[in-house]
Amino acid sequence: MKNEENENLMEYLKRKFMVNWLFGSLSREGKSTSAILVWVGFFILIFFIVIAVFAPYIAPYNPLKPAPGAPSFSPPSLKYPMGTDLLGYDLYSRVIWGSRIPLEVSALSIFFSLIIGMPVGLFSGFIGGKIDRVLVMIMDSIYAFPGLILAIVMTALLGPGLINVAVSIAVVYIPLYFRTVRNHTMSVKQELYVESGRAMGASRFQLIARFIAPNVILTVPVLISLNAADAILTEASLSFLGLGIPPLTPDWGREISDGSYYLQQAPWLAFFPGIFIVLLVVALSLIGEGLNDIVNPLIKRRETL
Amino acid sequence: MRPLKGLIDVRDLRVYFPIRKNFIEEIFSRSRLYVKAVDGISFTVDEGDTLCLVGESGSGKTTTGRSIVKLVQITGGDIYYKGINIGSMDEKEFRPLRKELQIIFQDPHASLSPGMTVGKSIEFGLRLHKIVERDRLRERTLEILRSVGLEPADYYYDKYPATLSGGQKQRVAIARAISCDPRFIVADEPVAMLDMSVRSKILKLMVDLKREKNLTYLFITHDLATAKFICNKIMIMYLGKIVESGPSEEIFSNPKHPYTMALMNAIPDLKLEKREKEIPRGEIPNPLKMPSGCRFHNRCKFAMERCSREEPELVEISPGHRVACFLYE
Amino acid sequence: MKIISVKDLKIYYNTSRGVVKAVDGVSFDIEREETLGIVGESGCGKSTLAMGLLDILPPSAKVSGEIILEGEDILRKDDEELRKIRHEKIALIFQDPMTRLDPLMRIKDHFLETFHSHRPELSEEEALKLSGDLLEAVGVSRETLNYYPHELSGGMRQRTMIALALIFNPLLLVADEPTTSLDVIVEAQILQLMNNIKKEFHMSIILITHNLGIVAEMADRVAVMYAGKIVEIGPLEDIFISPVHPYTQGLLGSVITLESKNLVMMPGEPPDLINPPTGCRFAPRCPYALDICNKDEPPLEEIKKGHSVACFRAKELAEEKNYYLRGEASERAD
C-alpha cells in the first residue's frame, strides 16, 4: 500500500471541517512560499481578532471619553502610546477598540454575500437557460457598478447602523460569489461523476447538493479572504466619508477621517489607524493569495474538489 | 408488433443529436442538421447474457448504452425492460427503476466525485433507494467493498478517489453499480483505460460478480479480443447501425460481414508472423456526410454496384446469426 | 552500427511530495533500421524516457547519464545545438496529434515553419513541394496542406505528424503511443505505414507503448520497463516466446487476444516512484521472490547474446524453459 502517510494525513483532516483541511494541506505544503504567506497572514489576522475580542482588557482608557487628564495633541509617549487627539482621547484605546467594527462588519457582510451569492450561483449554473441568463444579467449589472459608489448608495438608502452597513457592503460582493460559483458549477455539471449521480437516480436537488456543491466549494475560501480584504477597505471608506456608523464610534476609517484634518500638527492621528488597516488588509490578501496558489494546482490535479 | 422478449428489448432505436448552428444559420436556414448517432437498431438482451456491443468511434455503441439507462434522450423507437416501455417514461417515473439498470463508465478517473469518499459514494445509492436501514449502511458498504476485492474494506471506506489507482477506482465504480442489486448493467468500455495487467483482474471480477448476482451485461468495447473473452453474444455496429450480430462462438468462427472480418484482421495479436494484412482503406466517415446506400460500401473490397444505392437489411442467415450485407441476400 | 547509445539514464523530478525517480538507470543501444519496442504499464517511466531522449522535459527534471548520438553525448549540448538535433536527427511523434499541431495554423504553415527554422535557405516554393511529397509518402493528399488540423480525421492527423517528423530524414523516430487514440483499423494502417517508411527512409524507431500487440507487429527488439527500470531486453522472439523475467511473463500472460483462454492475474500494483521498495522493485509481487530480492537490486545481465534480464533467478528461470538450447550463452566475467 503506497502513499500511506501523506494521504492518510490529508484524508483524515479532510474528514473534519474545511478549516482543518486547509491546515492539513498547508502543513503538507510545508515550507513552500504559498504556505508561509498563508501562515503569516493568518497569524496577523488572529492577532487582530484577539485584540478586538480582548479590547476591554487591553485598552487602558475608555475610548468613548477623553482620557482623564490627557493633553490634546500629544505625540506618542509612554503614557499614550499612540498619542492623543484634539479632545484628549487616547488614540491607542480608540485604535484597539476600533478593530471591532471593521472585523464585525466585514464578517457580517461576507456572511450575507455568501448565503445569497453561493446558492443562487449554484442554482443558476445548474439550471442554465433563460433563468440563468436573466440572473447573470442582473448580477453583472450590480458588478459593473463601482463598488464604493454602490455601497454609498445603499448606505444612504438603508440608513446608519452596523447591520445596514454590512448589508450595503454585502450587496457589492454578492455578484462575485455568484459568478465564481456559477461558472464553476457550469463546468462541474458536465463532469462524468455528476452524470453517474444521475444514473444512480439522484434528483436535481441532490445532484447540486451532493455532487456539485462539494466540488465547487473549494474556490470559496480564497474568495472569502480576498473579499474580506476588500470589505475592510470599503467599510473604512464608508466611515471615512462619515457614512454608516454613528459618530464617536471607534473605527479605523473614522479615525483616519478625523485625523486627516490634522495631518500637519498631529500626523500620528491618521498614521496608526491607517497602518492597522493596511496590515489587516495585507494579512487577508496574503491568506487569499496563498490559498489560491495552493488550491489551484489541487483542483487541476483533481486531487480534491 | 412481435412479442416482447428478453430482459431488454430494443426496437428501432434512434438517437439523433442536433448540430448547433450559428446565429445566422439559425435564422435563415430551415433544415436542421443532425448527427444520427444511432439510426434504427433493434435487438434483445436475454437474462443472463453478456451481450457485447462492438464498434469503433462513431458507431453509436456508447450512445446505445447510455440511452438504455436513460442518460441520453431517445429520438425515436422503444426500449422495453421486463416488458415495460421505459423509453417513453419521464425521469420521475423512471427513477425507481434506476436501481435495477446501472452503468459503469469508461473513465475511472472522472466517474467518481473527487469530494466524496469511497464509502460515501457507495452509500449514496444505498440511501437513495433505501436498500438497508441507516444503521446498517456502513456494514453493507463494507460488504460491498469486499465483494469487489477492495480489502481491507475499512481502509478503502475512508479513501478519496484521488488517492486510488485506476484499477481501484474502477472497482469502486463497479461496487457502486452493484450496490443496489441491479438486474442489468451497461459497461461502457470499463477496461479500456486500464493497464493490461489490471484489465484481466477487472474482467474476472465482472465475470465473478455476474455469476454470484445473476446479472445481465451489455458490454461495450472496441476491442474484439476482449469481447470474445467475455461475451456469449455479440453485436457489431458501424455508423449507427448493426452490421452483424449473433452468438459469439458463431461470429468469431464464421464472420460474414466484411467489416467484421476487417476488424478481426486488424487486431494486433501476439503471434509473431509478420503477415501482410489486408486493411480496408480510408477511415470512418464523418457522420454528417454518411455514404449513400450501405454505410461501409466505400471501404469494402466486396462492394457491388447495388451497395452504393441501397442499404441492406439485417437478415438472419443462420439461427441467431444476423448480417446486413447484400452478399448474403 | 549503433545509432544511439543510452547509458545509465536517470530522470528524477522534484515535487512537493519528494523526488520521483521516473527513470532510474536505463541503458540500451539502437542499431540502424532497428525498431526497439519499449513496453510497460502506466507509471513505468517510458513516456518520461521518450521526452528525455529529446530533452523536452519540464524544468523540475534532473537528468544524469549519457545519450550518445553519432559519437557525441547530446545531454552535454547547449540549447542551440539541441534544437538542431531535435527534429533533424531525432524526431518525435505523440499519442494525440491535436496537442502537437497548432489549431490556428494550416498544415502547410506547420511545414513551412519547420523548414524556415532549420533550413532557411530553401524557398517557400521548394519547401511546399517537399511538404507535398512527404504528405503523399504517408498516404495523404497534397491538398491537405491547406487544411486546419481540426478539419482532418484522426488518422490523417497522425499521418501528417509522421510526415512532419520525416522532413529531415531523421536517424531515429521516437513514437510515444502513436496509435493509442486511433480506431483499430486506422491503427493497423498507421502501423503498416510506419513499417514501410522505416525501410524507405532507413530509420530506426523507438516504439513506446503499453500495447504488446503492436510491439509484436513492429519491433525487432523489446525492452520491458517496470518502475523506472528496464527489467528485460532482448530480441522480439525471445521476449514474446520465452520471457524470463517474472514481470514479463505476467505481462504477456495478461494480454487478451482472440486466443486467450486463461489470463494471468498479477497481484498488487506498481510501486510508488517516490519511495520504491528496497531491492528489486518487482519483488513484492513476484511469485519467485527470495530474501535477497528484497535487499539488493538485481543488475541487468546478459543470459544469452542480446538478451538481458534483471533478476537474481534469471538463469534458473531461463533454464527451466530450456532457453539455453537456443543460441549460445554469452561470456560473462564471473
Keywords:
heterotrimer, A: 305 residues, mainly alpha, MetI-like fold, 14 helices, 73% helix, disordered N terminus, B: 329 residues, alpha/beta, 4-stranded antiparallel beta sheet, 11 helices
Distance between the termini of chain C: 28 Å
* Total DSSP helices of chain C: 11
- In total, the number of domains of chain C comes to 2
Main sheet properties of chain B:
8 strands, mixed
Text of the CATH class of the largest domain in chain C: Alpha Beta
Textual characterization of the structure:
The complex is a heterotrimer of chains A (305), B (329) and C (334). With 305 residues, chain A is an all-alpha fold. Chain A has a domain at 96-300: MetI-like (MetI-like fold). In chain A, 73% of the residues lie in helices and 0% in strands. Chain A is built from 14 helices and no strands. The longest helix of chain A is centred in the last third of the chain and has 33 residues, at 268-300. Chain A is elongated, with a radius of gyration of 23 Å. The model of chain A is unreliable at 1-7 and 11-18 (pLDDT under 50). With 329 residues, chain B is α/β, with parallel strands linked by helices. Chain B has helices spanning 23-28, 61-68, 91-94, 118-128, 137-147, 153-157, 166-178, 196-213, 224-230, 248-253, 258-266, and strands at residues 8-18, 34-45, 50-54, 76-81, 84-85, 101-104, 184-188, 216-221, 233-238, 241-247, 315-318, 321-323. In chain B, a hairpin with a 2-residue loop joins strand 4 and strand 5. In chain B, helix 4 (118-128) packs across helix 5 (137-147) and helix 4 packs parallel to helix 7. Chain B is globular and about 70 Å long. Chain B starts with 7 loop residues before the first strand and ends in a 6-residue tail after the last strand. The relative contact order of chain B is 0.14. Chain C has 334 residues and is α/β, with parallel strands linked by helices. Chain C has two domains: 2-224, Rossmann fold (3-Layer(aba) Sandwich); 228-325, no CATH class. Chain C is built from eleven helices and twelve strands. Chain C has helices at 46-53, 79-88, 97-100, 107-118, 124-137, 154-166, 184-201, 212-218, 236-241, 246-253, 314-320, and strands at residues 2-15, 18-31, 35-39, 61-69, 72-73, 90-93, 172-176, 204-209, 221-226, 229-235, 301-304, 307-309. In chain C, strand 1 and strand 2 form a beta hairpin. Chain C is globular, with a radius of gyration of 21 Å. Mean pLDDT of chain C is 87; it is low at 324-334. The interface between B and C is large, with 42 and 41 residues.
